[in-house]
Amino acid sequence: MNRNITRIVAIAATLAMGTSLAACGGSSADSSKGHVYFMNNKAEVVDQYKELASMYTKKTGVQVDIQTGAAGTYDVPP
After folding, report:
1. pLDDT at residue 6 tops 70
2. Which residues contact 51 (CB under 8 A, 6 or more apart)?
3. Of 2, 26, 27, 42, which sits 20 to 30 A from 72 (CA to CA)?
4. Residue 44: left if φ>0, alpha if ψ -120 to 50, beta else—which one?
5. pLDDT at 27 over 50
6. Alpha-carbon distance 50 to 47, whole Å?
7. Which run of H or E residues covers position 34?
């Protein structure tokens, strides 16, 4: 059951990230095209995000860095 929930969350997060990155475009690796930093707070899906980021970078040339902050490792406003 917990594994299914993790998979659903991973798929939903992947789709959300793909949709949010769809507006960025390009065809070759070039730092002038920008750089995307994606903050992830779910350590269990970091591998899926990194795979998606790699595919996006290959397709568009826009570098994507996945930052993972687990509970207690980043500040959240009250």
Report:
1. yes
2. none
3. 2
4. alpha
5. no
6. 5
7. none
